[in-house]
């Protein structure tokens, strides 16, 4: 049908015929041949309407036939399954009302969905009640634990032996069960930066130049190496479930320990070389005579203080224990040590000050509320309680104190020796022995060498720092042989808290 024919709607066929028939001169008429229609608008209208009537009748007959066939097939299927005789009349009534059947089906499905949903909700609520009851009983029957911000991560134990750095570039693992080193890693040579390490579980973290490394503590395999935007200062710090590194431009980077990815970057209040110390998730950092406390959980500055107006003064040897900080204020002028101070980290109140004498060095260590210290021009060790403002004990030693370390909760380790004047008017350290003391009373627990160990002593070249082990033992390294002839030997000796040798490993490298 042409577009103009759409004006003649089949719904108004009776009205259109009546209208045309009432015209005085109808412009339609039949012609001699059947089916031949004059090309007149009215004649075409009648022809098209007649055609539509026939087409609608044909479609109605086909629809009724299909419906009858479908109803007959449905009736036969129902009779086979259920054995019921469903009459054609009942079937026709059911088919004649499809909308009602569909509505009933939809209503049934809705009721089924609501029922299933209600059952699922009841099961979920019951499970939650059961879990709550189990947790409540479990908490009541278990010992109380301190709440933590994050779940504790189970770490693998550190392999036995010692980890240290040789020749300012080689990281090495010594195992007492083997004669040779288990593994070693040579860092690139550097004139201004030597590597520093930190051991956490089965991982050895190291910093060198602009790179933070992570090594497998058992095999020495490199797990990852993260290049940083600037040169690093100080060693890696493992705390709060992360690894931290500081750059010389004053940025603190928090790294993910599994892969070294940078998690956060914090801006520090200083931009120079740093002296740092970590205690109770707080990083204490200093540059020259300024000191600041940084919360490692969010990188925020807790406080910042200026400890000296002397432009040549610099803070060093920071130690923190039980809310007390001990540090040295050194200067390039005489006296070399301006003062040694202990103060409350929260209030900033100075608890104790030890003025320094001319060209006198102090060796000190802080444990709880007590400062253990000794001057280089004496052989006396002092124990002073800074909160009670009183001296606890003194101990007269056989030589000056060169090094002081805490081995365990009740043992203080001292390396003793004398300063020997050389021909060029310089002084060098001559190591004489090791001594361990009881922290509470100052009594000597052990010494090395004793009368029986004198011939076996290797103390003369123990100029390297002590390695404190997690099990309360400690390890010293010394050298023997002739380096010029290529016969230089590294000797590692482990001692108990009473200075008794436990094992020794010697090798050439």
TrEMBL record:
Alphabetized Pfam families for the sequence: PQQ_2
Region (Disordered): 74-108
Keywords, sorted A to Z: Membrane, Transmembrane, Transmembrane helix
SMART domains: PQQ
Presence of the UniProt keyword Transmembrane helix in the record: yes
Residues spanning the signal sequence: none
Biased composition (Polar residues): 75-86
Family matches, as SUPFAM superfamilies: Quinoprotein alcohol dehydrogenase-like
UniProt entry tagged with the keyword Transmembrane helix: yes
Residues that span the membrane, as ranges: 112-134
Domain Pyrrolo-quinoline quinone repeat: 168-312, 341-451
Protein name as annotated: Pyrrolo-quinoline quinone repeat domain-containing protein
């Amino acid at each position: 049908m042409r577009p103009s024919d759409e004006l003649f709607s089949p719904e108004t066929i009776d009205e259109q015929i009546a209208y045309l028939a009432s015209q005085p001169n109808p412009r339609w008429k039949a012609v001699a041949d059947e089916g031949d229609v004059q090309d007149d608008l009215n004649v075409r209208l009648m022809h098209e309407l007649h055609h539509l009537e026939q087409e609608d009748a044909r479609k109605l007959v086909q629809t009724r036939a299909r419906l009858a066939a479908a109803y007959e097939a449905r009736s036969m299927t129902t009779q086979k399954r259920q054995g019921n005789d469903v009459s054609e009349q009942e079937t026709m009534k059911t088919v004649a009302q499809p909308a009602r059947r569909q509505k009933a089906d939809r209503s049934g499905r809705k009721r089924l969905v609501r029922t299933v949903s209600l059952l699922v909700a009841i099961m979920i609520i019951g499970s939650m009640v059961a879990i709550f009851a189990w947790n409540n009983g479990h908490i009541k029957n278990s010992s109380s634990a301190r709440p933590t911000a994050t779940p504790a991560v189970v770490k693998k134990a550190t392999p036995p032996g010692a980890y240290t750095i040789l020749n300012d570039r080689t990281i090495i693992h010594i195992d007492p069960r083997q004669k040779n080193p288990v593994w070693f890693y040579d860092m690139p040579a550097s004139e201004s930066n030597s590597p520093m390490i930190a051991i956490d579980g089965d991982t050895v973290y190291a910093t060198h130049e602009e790179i933070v490394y992570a090594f497998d503590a058992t095999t020495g395999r490199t797990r990852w190496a993260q290049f940083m935007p600037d040169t690093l200062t100080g060693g890696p710090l493992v705390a709060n479930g992360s690894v931290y590194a500081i750059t010389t431009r004053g940025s603190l980077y928090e790294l993910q320990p599994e892969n070294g990815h940078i998690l956060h970057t914090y801006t520090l209040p200083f931009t120079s070389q740093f002296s740092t110390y970590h205690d109770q998730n707080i990083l204490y950092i200093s540059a020259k005579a300024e000191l600041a406390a940084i919360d490692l959980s969010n990188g925020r500055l807790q406080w910042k203080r200026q400890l000296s107006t002397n432009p040549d003064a610099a803070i060093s040897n920071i130690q923190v224990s039980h809310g007390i900080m001990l540090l040295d204020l050194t200067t390039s002028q005489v006296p070399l040590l301006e003062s040694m101070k202990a103060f409350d980290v929260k209030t900033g109140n100075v608890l104790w000050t030890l003025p320094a004498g001319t060209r006198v060095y102090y060796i000190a260590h802080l444990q709880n509320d007590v400062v253990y210290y000794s001057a280089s021009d004496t052989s006396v060790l002092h124990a002073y309680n800074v909160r009670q403002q009183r001296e606890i004990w003194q101990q007269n030693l056989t030589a000056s104190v060169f090094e002081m370390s805490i081995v365990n909760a009740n043992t203080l380790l001292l390396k003793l020796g004398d300063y020997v004047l050389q021909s060029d008017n310089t002084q060098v350290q001559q190591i004489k022995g090791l001594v361990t003391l009881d922290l509470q009373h100052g009594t000597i627990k052990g010494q090395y060498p004793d009368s029986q160990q004198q011939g076996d002593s290797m103390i003369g070249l123990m100029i390297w720092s002590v390695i404190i082990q997690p099990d309360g033992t400690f390890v010293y390294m010394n050298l023997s042989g002739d380096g010029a002839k290529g016969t230089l030997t590294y000797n590692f000796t482990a001692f108990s808290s009473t200075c008794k040798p436990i094992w020794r490993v010697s090798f050439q490298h």
